[in-house]
Design goal:
The structure is a single chain. The chain has a 3-stranded antiparallel beta sheet with strand order 1-2-3. Helix 3 (about 75-85) packs across helix 4 (about 90-95). The N and C termini lie far apart (about 45 Å). It is mainly alpha-helical and about 130 residues long. The chain is elongated. The protein is built from 5 helices and 3 strands; from the N terminus they run βββααααα.
Length: about 130
């Protein structure tokens, strides 16, 4: 999980109840928190080896809250809000961690992200310069 905090982003393991240790990281940006988290994972691995304990093979899939998502993927919030039919100032408050979106709002944001990804994957980009701009 990568979450927005008041002054820092935090990154931690979620849903790994079978582990007998935790790994956390933090930073001024979502990317820095993730980097710190991966460093902490390496340090935990070295510690376990020093102690003669097994360290499981771990693979991390980072999941973002709204604020961390917009920090890591610096999309234009105003344009994205317009695309999904949401008030831009409300979306900015979610992105800054000032407000927490309801489940239905979060689903709306998620669906907007999925649609954007689908459009990009479908090649909905200009692949050559428009003559008037060359």
């Amino acid at each position: 999980m990568v979450e927005t905090g008041k002054d820092l982003f935090s990154c931690f393991i979620s849903g790994a109840d079978d582990l007998d240790f935790g790994i956390v990281g933090d930073g001024k940006t979502a990317a820095k928190a993730m980097e710190d988290f991966l460093l902490a994972a390496e340090e935990m691995k070295a510690y376990c080896q020093e102690q003669g304990k097994d360290f499981p093979e771990l693979e991390f899939d980072f999941v973002f809250d709204v604020g961390a998502f917009f920090d890591y993927y610096p999309l234009n919030i105003t344009a994205f809000a317009k695309r999904i039919g949401m008030n831009a100032s409300q979306l900015r408050q979610y992105a800054r961690g000032i407000r927490t979106p309801k489940a239905s709002t979060l689903a709306r944001i998620y669906e907007g992200v999925k649609k954007t990804v689908k459009d990009i994957e479908a090649g909905h980009l200009i692949d050559k310069p428009v003559p008037q701009y060359v």
